[in-house]
Write a structure and sequence with these properties.
Blueprint lengths: L4 H4 L2 E3 L1 E3 L5 E2 L1 E11 L6 E4 L8 H11 L6 E5 L25 E3 L5 E3 L2 H12 L2 E7 L37 H19 L1 H5 L2 E4 L12 H18 L4 E7 L7 H11 L14 E7 L3 E3 L8 E3 L2 H17 L7 E8 L18 H20 L2 E8 L16 E2 L2 E2 L1 H11 L3 E7 L5 H7 L7 E8 L6 E8 L9 E5 L3 E7 L13 H4 L3 E8 L9 E5 L4 E6 L1
Parallel strand pairs: 5-6, 5-16, 6-9, 9-10, 10-11, 11-12, 12-15, 15-16
Antiparallel strand pairs: 1-4, 2-3, 2-22, 4-19, 7-8, 13-14, 17-18, 19-20, 20-21, 21-26, 22-25, 23-24, 23-26
Helix pairs in contact: 4-6, 8-9, 8-11, 9-10
Length: 544
């Protein structure tokens, strides 16, 4: 007999007991739909574009392209950066990449060569991923101050000066605009109008900090010329920006949006500049806490830092009535600010705190978007992989030597949450305002829930996490919930590979079930299932 989840499983009631005698109730109403659940967790990126064409990069792209029914996108720096020396067409180092897309002959005439960018985009598309195209960085032949240009980075947060010649304004704004036009035109000819229409084109990266060694007004010029180039090649292309660091970043985001509405366009002399989406970046700020008499040394995350960035940016976007309907992307959305940096303050990347942080943070960002009536379309995780690096090398990556890290499985969970969002409440879930102000510190962990139901009404998915900013042992949550036909996926210590299991890690690293699927007996539309949820564990319950 078929029983509709939507009609039979009306309410989830649950009980969670901690060893400190804390009681938590979870309730989910399968008949109370809050609206569409935005599939935000399908965007990724990296500094190093060329790794996409390497064996491990292609393998990981295949996983990303199969996360769920919604399209996955990839954003990367250095798509227009010049190889230095020009023969260095296989760059293999941190925070660097190059394509030789633009050089000049002895007389200063442009030479366009999109062979390497084609290889990168082909690798995406062959694995079901589409480009979120970043127009940057400045080719050496166009840079106003080209030398020094390339650099070496050793993984230290401030070890080397990486902001070299590629971060400068162009010697010719016309040549910059023409480069973008020729590139977009080439993409249309190679992939077809319909395909390129489905991409996003954004201009540069974090122009409010050292990634752009020009002025704010010069960035507006950079944007105007780049967008004009894309739209000359494909008038129906989707263009946007500005990918500022730090949410609203003071007045930066607002002044950019004002430019797109009322500023003078430096290419056309008309008022304003085309914009089809708005993007900014949000980062947490973890720290390492030294040992005291009462607390051992440990890492402490800071979700509030990233959420405050998001809150500030949403507030600015909401204030622009003519633009606040546009898709909004958190173009980099991470627990810290440097994927290729290694230090004790970022020692969360190989373990379970990273996926539980992501589950809790992305849910709060969806809530903030609802509060501000902002069209949040994507939260982009700045993490990919590095070929020829040691296993579990502490960089912020999704996989290591084709072994999935725990963080990749949270995106598989999000991919199973489709359709519409359901009303879901947990008395153990910290309020949005409290997390925004204080993060998740103190004595109590954040035991939260996000619920969805399929458009057909026959599949219910509940993501339940047990998160705390402190990377310290805490009591498990003993959960009593409900069901139907239940498949229970789990990310926790016992469902995650250990360092000693490297030989078998390719299998063990995949998202695992807590136990084989089971059928639960219904009693007046309800059934019970009990399980423990350790600290920093995440469960996904799929009921059909």
């Amino acid at each position: 007999m078929h029983i509709s989840v939507k009609t039979a499983l009306l309410v989830l009631t649950g009980l969670i007991r901690h060893s400190v005698a804390r009681q938590v109730n979870i309730s989910v109403s399968a008949s109370t739909i809050l609206g569409d659940l935005p599939p935000v967790a399908r965007f990724f990126g990296a500094d190093e574009p060329n790794y996409a064409t390497y064996p491990d990069g292609r393998a990981l792209l295949s996983h990303l392209g199969n996360l769920g029914p919604h399209q996955t996108y990839f954003r990367t720096h250095n798509l227009l950066t010049t190889c230095d020396p020009p023969s260095d067409t296989t760059p293999h180092r941190l925070k660097w990449g190059c394509t030789n897309a633009y050089t000049e002959d002895a007389d200063g005439r442009p030479i366009y060569n999109f062979t390497i960018t084609d290889m990168i985009f082909d690798a995406y598309r062959e694995n079901g991923v589409k480009p979120y195209v970043q127009t940057g960085f400045m080719p050496k032949a166009l840079s106003t101050h080209p030398d020094p240009y390339s650099f070496e980075f050793d993984g230290g947060s401030s070890a080397n000066n990486i902001f070299t010649g590629w971060s400068n304004p162009p010697t010719s704004w016309h040549k910059w605009g023409e480069l973008i036009y020729q590139w977009a035109k080439h993409c249309v000819e190679r992939y077809g109008e319909a395909e390129v229409e489905s991409w996003y084109w954004e201009v540069w990266n974090e122009p409010n900090i050292a990634y752009w060694n020009g002025t704010e007004e010069q960035y507006f010029m950079l944007y105007d010329y780049a967008v004009d180039g894309v739209l000359r090649a494909l008038p129906t292309a989707t263009v946007g920006g500005p990918e500022v660091a730090g949410g609203a970043s003071g007045d930066w985001l607002g002044l950019f949006l004002e430019h797109t509405l009322t500023g003078k366009n430096t290419v056309t002399n008309a008022t304003g500049a085309p914009i089809n989406f708005i993007s900014f970046h949000a980062k947490g700020s973890p720290i390492f806490i030294n040992a005291t008499d009462s607390v051992p040394a440990h890492l402490q995350m800071n979700m509030a830092s990233a959420l405050q960035n998001v809150n500030d940016a949403f507030s600015v976007i909401h204030s622009f009535e003519a633009l606040n309907h546009l898709p909004v992307f958190i173009g980099e959305d991470d627990p810290d600010s440097c994927a290729a940096c290694v230090s004790p303050s970022v020692d969360y990347r190989n373990g379970l705190i990273y996926p539980s942080y992501t589950a809790a943070a992305f849910t709060r960002e969806i809530d903030l978007a609802t509060n501000y009536s902002v069209n949040l379309t994507g939260a982009l995780t700045w993490a990919f992989e590095y070929d020829d690096h040691p296993y579990f090398d502490d960089f912020r990556v999704l996989s290591t030597n084709q072994i999935d890290k725990p963080i990749l499985n949270i995106f598989r969970m999000f991919g199973m949450m489709q359709g519409q969002r359901l009303e879901a409440n947990s008395t153990g879930q910290a309020s949005l305002d409290d997390v925004l102000s204080n993060s998740v510190k103190g004595n109590l962990s954040d035991v939260g829930v996000l619920a969805s139901i399929s458009t057909e009404g026959d599949k219910l998915a509940l993501m339940i996490w047990n998160y705390h900013d402190d990377a310290l042992p805490r009591p498990d949550a003993e959960i009593s919930a409900f069901g139907g036909r239940l498949t229970h996926y789990r990310i926790d210590k016992s469902h995650n590979p250990t360092q000693e299991q490297i030989v078998d890690l390719k299998v063990d690293g995949m998202l695992q079930m807590l136990h084989p699927p089971s059928t639960l007996k219904l009693d007046n539309g309800k059934a019970d299932v009990q399980f423990e949820l350790p600290i920093h564990a995440v469960s996904l319950l799929v009921i059909e």
